[in-house]
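Protocol step 4 of 5: obtain the predicted structure for the target chain.
Materials: sequence only (see below). No template structures provided, no constraints applied. The aim of this step is simply to have a reference model before the mutagenesis design in step 5. Sequence pasted as it appears in the construct record:
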Amino acid sequence: MNELTFLDLIILKKTTPDSSVENFGSMINTSFFETANLLGTVKIKGYIDIESSVGGISKVTLTDAGQGILALAEKRKAEPIEPLDNAILHALAGGAKSPELLQAQLNIRSGDIAYHVLKLVEQGFMDYGVRSAKVSFVLTEQGFNATGGVRVQQKLPEIVEGANAEKNGHEEAHAEHKGNKEDVAHILGMHHEHNAQAHEGQAHHEHAEHGHHEHPHAHHAEGEKKEKELSPDEHKKAEKQKRMLSKLQHYLVEYSLWLVLVFIVVAIFFGAIFLLLSRNGL
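Step 4 output (structure tokens):
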């Protein structure tokens, strides 16, 4: 969790004296909320500090640890090509186009890969792009020639599966949770049906009460069906709205004291004006 990644290095390299959470997203082609999450993670690792100020600007500064990482990266990027560098280039030629796939294929620590990839980028063997908090790699002509000019044929289904294991596991757990709720609703429905048959000769008001008891379960099952029919885009939009509300709640809590102080000052100001006008009227 706290290990250095290539994206961490990119964030550290792009941090300047004028950097803030609000303007950082444009530098790494990432939305504000994704950028805020990334910067929060890097702060937890101890590489940067985020200072809130009046006016809503959250300044981003490097810590001593972050400056030390940049100094080491600057030193290592001038080193000659090593076996690990060649292995990274061949893995990239074989289709490992992300830091996660490189780490899974080479079984090397994320921090070591980050330094070596930055060196290969600085020396012109490969390039990278960032989009929506994801990094993708590509070989340059120099890097392609360094692999012998022949694309390495490799199969990566297991690597891709391992890199996406967490995402798939989350989706399967969500689906299983839905299935469990549907099973419970089904069992409850069977139970109510059995009770209706056993008490068929009872008064009409008992059947009405029984039907009223089943009604919430029918709505619940219908709600589950609608939730299941959400398209991937609608589900992604719903998740983004949840993150937006969470971020809004965070800022409201963080700046609540300032809002209260501003309200008090405004109230005192208008109260003084009212008192002054009242005295002049007398």
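Step 4 remarks: Strands lie at 48-52, 58-62, 126-131, 134-139. Residues 12 and 249 are 28 Å apart (CA to CA).
Proceed to step 5.
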